[in-house]
Write a sequence for this structure.
C-alpha cells in the first residue's frame, strides 16, 4: 500500500495550550528527518530508545528546547522507524515544528494511521487495534478492563484456538474429497460433532456477553418517561448538572430525544429524556412520542416520573407502561414535586402508586418521592440506580472475555449461523464438500474479527473513527 511508503506526523496530545505537547512521527526516513531539525545537547545524535535533551531549530532560529526519543523498526508501536518530540505546549511552537516537518516532505497522519500501520505491519491484530480506541475512550474501570484484556490479545487468543480446531477438521474433510473414490474417512464424525459443540457453545457465550459488554462500553441506557410537565427534563438537568433540556410549563416542549451520560459509582449511565406521553394531534409531537416508546423498549432501566400535584393522572401514567416494558427491564417510579404536597399527601400518594402497580402487574424496584427542581431525593435515586447494576459490576469484575464491539458481535452471529448449518448437515448426512464449505464460512467470519480477512473499505471504516495521532 502506497501510504506505507510515506513519512507521517501528528500531534498526539489534545489540541490547545498545555504544559507539554507530543508530536509523533513514523516512517522509514524518521531518524534522518529528526536529525535535520533537532540538535541534541553535546552534539551527539539521539540513540534509539534513549530520550535526549536538545533544541529544535529552523536554520539558526531557535523554536524550542525539548526532549526527543526515537524508536527503530520493527521494535516500535507502528513497526517502523518512529519518533516522539516532547515540546512546550504552545500552539505556536507546535505549529512551527509541524511546519518544519511538512517542509521536509512529511505528511500529516490520517485518523488512526499510526494504529493502522501497526496492524498492517503485524504489531497488532484488528481486534487489538480496535481495543486501542476503546482504551482511549474508556471512562470506567469496567470499560478499561475490557479494553485492556482485548488489547493484550485475550479475545484474539480464544478466536485463534477455535479457528485452528475448525481449520484442522476442514482440512481432513477436504482430504477425504481427494480420496473420494477409495471411500476413506479421515475426519471422525463423532470427533467433529464434539468439537463443533465446543466451538459453537463458546461462540454462543461470546454473543451473549455482548449485552453486558455493550452496556459497560456505552453506558446503561436509562429512559426517563412520563406525561407532559411531570418534570422529566428538570430531572435530566439536575442529574447531569447542566441545562441539557429546555424546561417550560408549556405541554409538549420536549419533542425529541435528549441524551447525556453520568458516572455513578464507577458505572456510566446514559440518561434519555423523552417526549411527554399524552393524547395529541400535533404531527411533530406524535413522532416524538413514538420515539419515546422506541427508547423505552431499548432501555435497561425505565424511570417513570409522576407529578405529585396531579394524582388523577397516576393511573394513566402507569397504564401507559403496561405491555411496553419487559421482565428484563428495571422500573423506578418517581413521585416528583413532593415539595408541593404535604408530608401526609406524599405518603398517601405513594400508597396509591403501590396499589396501582399491583393492579397493573408492574413490579418497580423502587418508588421514591423527589423534587427534581430542588434536588430533594436525588441522592436516593442515584443510590438505587447504582444498586440496580450490582450484577453488572460483579460480572465485569469476574474476568473472561466480554464482547463490546458491534462489528465483532455481527461476525460472531454470522459464524454461529454457519456452524448451525454444519450441525444440521452432519445430522442429515449432507455431502462432505457442502459441510466443509459451511465450516470455511464460519472460519471466514471468525477470521474477519482479527483481520485475517479484511478489505480496504473495512479498514477505512474502523481506523477512520480513531483520533488523529494514534
Amino acid at each position: 500500500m502506497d501510504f506505507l511508503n510515506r513519512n507521517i506526523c501528528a500531534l498526539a496530545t489534545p489540541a490547545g495550550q498545555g504544559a507539554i505537547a507530543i508530536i509523533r512521527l513514523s516512517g522509514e526516513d524518521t531518524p534522518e528527518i529528526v536529525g535535520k531539525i533537532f540538535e541534541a545537547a553535546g552534539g551527539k545524535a539521539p540513540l534509539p530508545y534513549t530520550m535526549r535533551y536538545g533544541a529544535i531549530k529552523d536554520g539558526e532560529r531557535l523554536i524550542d528546547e525539548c526532549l526527543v526519543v526515537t524508536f527503530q523498526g520493527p521494535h516500535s508501536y507502528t513497526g517502523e522507524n518512529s519518533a516522539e518530540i516532547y515540546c512546550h505546549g504552545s500552539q505556536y511552537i507546535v505549529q512551527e515544528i509541524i511546519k518544519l516537518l511538512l517542509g521536509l516532505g512529511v505528511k500529516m497522519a490520517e485518523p488512526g494511521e499510526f494504529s493502522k500501520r501497526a496492524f498492517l505491519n503485524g504489531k497488532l491484530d484488528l481486534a487489538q487495534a480496535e481495543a486501542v480506541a476503546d482504551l482511549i475512550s474508556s471512562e470506567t474501570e469496567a470499560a478499561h478492563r475490557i479494553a485492556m484484556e482485548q488489547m493484550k490479545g485475550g479475545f484474539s487468543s480464544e478466536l485463534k484456538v477455535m479457528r485452528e480446531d475448525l481449520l484442522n477438521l476442514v482440512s481432513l474433510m477436504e482430504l477425504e474429497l481427494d480420496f473420494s473414490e477409495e471411500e476413506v474417512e479421515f475426519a471422525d464424525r463423532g470427533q467433529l460433532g464434539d468439537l463443533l459443540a465446543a466451538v459453537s457453545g463458546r461462540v454462543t457465550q461470546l454473543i451473549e456477553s455482548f449485552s453486558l459488554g455493550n452496556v459497560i462500553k456505552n453506558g446503561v441506557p436509562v429512559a426517563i418517561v412520563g406525561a407532559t410537565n411531570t418534570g422529566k427534563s428538570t430531572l435530566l438537568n439536575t442529574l447531569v448538572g447542566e441545562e441539557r433540556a429546555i424546561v417550560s410549563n408549556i405541554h409538549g416542549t420536549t419533542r425529541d430525544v435528549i441524551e447525556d451520560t453520568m458516572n455513578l459509582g464507577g458505572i456510566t449511565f446514559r440518561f434519555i429524556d423523552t417526549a411527554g406521553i399524552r393524547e395529541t394531534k400535533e404531527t411533530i409531537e406524535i413522532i416524538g412520542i413514538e420515539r419515546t416508546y422506541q427508547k423505552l423498549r431499548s432501555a435497561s432501566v425505565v424511570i417513570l416520573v409522576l407529578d405529585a400535584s396531579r394524582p388523577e393522572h397516576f393511573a394513566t401514567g402507569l397504564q401507559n407502561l403496561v405491555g411496553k416494558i419487559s421482565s428484563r427491564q428495571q422500573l423506578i417510579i418517581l413521585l416528583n414535586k413532593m415539595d408541593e404536597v404535604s408530608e401526609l399527601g406524599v405518603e398517601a400518594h405513594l400508597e396509591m402508586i403501590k396499589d396501582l402497580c399491583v393492579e397493573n402487574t408492574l413490579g418497580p424496584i423502587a418508588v421514591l418521592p423527589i423534587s427534581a427542581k430542588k434536588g430533594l431525593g436525588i441522592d436516593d435515586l442515584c443510590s438505587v440506580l447504582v444498586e440496580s447494576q450490582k450484577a453488572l459490576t460483579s460480572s465485569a469484575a469476574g474476568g473472561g472475555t466480554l464482547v463490546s464491539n458491534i462489528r465483532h458481535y455481527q461476525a460472531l452471529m454470522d459464524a454461529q449461523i454457519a456452524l448451525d448449518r454444519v450441525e444440521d448437515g452432519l445430522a442429515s448426512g449432507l455431502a462432505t464438500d457442502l459441510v466443509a464449505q459451511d465450516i470455511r464460512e464460519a472460519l471466514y467470519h471468525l477470521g474477519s474479527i482479527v483481520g485475517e480477512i479484511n478489505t480496504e473499505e473495512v479498514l477505512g471504516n474502523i481506523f477512520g473513527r480513531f483520533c488523529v495521532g494514534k
